[in-house]
Amino acid sequence: MFRNIKINTFSVRQYIKCLDDNKLPTALSLKFSPRTRALYWLFWLAYKFYISGDNFYELFGKKLDNIFKLELYWAKKLRYIKKYSGGYKLTDK
């Protein structure tokens, strides 16, 4: 049910040192629940300004609208997102 999320170091020197030492450049490893994994994915996806419901389903096996029903409702109500066929677009707000 829980999977580890590994976050690489942001230090270029440390990253190179890890690779030279045949190690993974992991700075932090966290156990995420399925919902937390989905939230993390949504956070990084927001930089694209588009959230695909199809991609969400492929990754998590559940519909985006079912998992984040309340959050999406309020995001639409506050005009942070607009629903389009297949997903949501973030607004300039």
Automatic annotation (TrEMBL):
<protein>
    <submittedName>
        <fullName>Uncharacterized protein</fullName>
    </submittedName>
</protein>
